[in-house]
Amino acid sequence: MAKTRKEKEELVSEIADKLSNMKAAVFTSVSGYTMEDANGLRQKGAENGVEILITKKSLLLLALEKNGFKVNRDEFEGSILSTFGYDDEVSAAKIISEFSKGRDEIKVVGGVLEGQLVGADAIKQLATLPSREELLAKVVGSINAPVSGFVNVLAGNLRNLVYVLNSIKEAKA
Q1: What is the mean pLDDT of residues 110-134?
Q2: Does an H or E element contain 112, and which?
Q3: What's the farthest any 2 CA atoms get from each other in the chain?
Q4: Whole-model pTM?
Q5: Are 11 and 3 in contact (CB under 8 A)?
Q6: CB-hemisphere CA count at 13 Å for 11?
């Protein structure tokens, strides 16, 4: 059933709101996208704070232009799958990158990062970055390493003292 002009305007403003509230967005040209794929992708997205939806290209382009983005309409070919990451900048790109492995019919066409339109290459590089949690774990490990090393050095001195005292005890026995 065709949507009325009012429904389309509501959709455009809803997408524009998503674009203004997200940290990163990825736009992917898809074909051969089944309902099973859609459900699995949406579930994975929900677990990672990512919203995934398919809209008409014309409505998506209007929402992008409404948010002040200059869009080259020729880059958007086929059905466009929009992925909005709300928690961090990396999760949307990672989910799409993982989903597109082994599927030639899925092609990243671009995205939005830090208020700028970026190309497919930037999104692919973004997908290779570690997530926020991984980076925090590395920072904690880096902070903990000197302390752990210092404790091992102190324990080594005590251990050597015990060995010396034990050797003296055995020599006297």
Answers
A1: 85
A2: strand 107-113
A3: 100
A4: 0.73
A5: yes
A6: 16
